[in-house]
Design brief:
Blueprint (H helix, E strand, L loop, with lengths): L1 E10 L2 E7 L15 H12 L15 H11 L19 E8 L4 H4 L11 E11 L2 H21 L12 H12 E8 L1
Antiparallel strand pairs: 1-2, 1-3, 3-4, 4-5
């Protein structure tokens, strides 16, 4: 069994990158600032130590949409979300495709998607997602509302208090509210 290819999505400046692995050696070659280090960091964070994600791993291009979610959450009668569906295309993800030989089925038996699967490539999607979207919603609203209330009551306040928006909150608490979750792909 070997990793045949990997797709990295929305990790830093890597919007959608595909990496095909050789059975022998795979080299990353490219100009400076082309994403080689980001690709290696994504591999390490998703496959080795998922506890080390930081806010800057979230693509800058998706932060406007994350803040739009936060804006809807601060509306007084907004409903607590029940799933993380909106976040799927905004946060870092990695598709890992394994080439599994027939004699290796026992290694992947717990993740085989259906009885119709007869070998070949088996994929897993690893996505950075909220651990508990309801808790993130509640905690963010409390922090946001408290900051706005304090600003109103303090006549000497020159600026906005933390958090200014949802990205501001996530930047400080990413490890508390986010984790890598896995899904079968085939």
């Amino acid at each position: 069994m070997q990793i045949s290819k990997i797709s990295i999505k929305d990790f830093r400046r890597l919007k959608n990158v595909n990496i095909d692995f050789s059975s022998e050696t795979t080299l990353f070659v490219g100009a400076n600032n082309s994403g080689k280090t980001s690709a290696m960091d994504a591999l390490r964070k998703f496959l080795v130590n998922s506890d080390v994600f930081v806010y800057n791993d979230i693509s800058v291009t998706n932060r406007i949409n994350i803040n739009k979610i936060g804006e809807t959450w601060t509306i007084p009668d907004s409903e607590k979300p029940s799933d993380s569906q909106l976040w799927l295309n905004m946060l870092p993800a990695m598709d890992v495709w394994l080439n599994v030989e027939e004699y290796e089925y026992h290694y992947v038996s717990s993740i085989i998607p259906t009885l119709e699967w007869v070998g070949g490539d088996l994929g897993l999607r690893l996505s950075l997602l909220p651990k508990d979207i309801g808790k993130l919603f509640e905690d963010y609203r409390i922090a946001y509302d408290n900051a706005r209330e304090t600003e109103k009551s303090d006549e000497n306040s020159n600026g906005k208090l933390f958090p200014n928006n949802l990205c501001d909150y996530i930047a400080r608490h990413i490890g508390q509210y986010f984790e890598v979750k896995s899904f079968i792909k085939y």
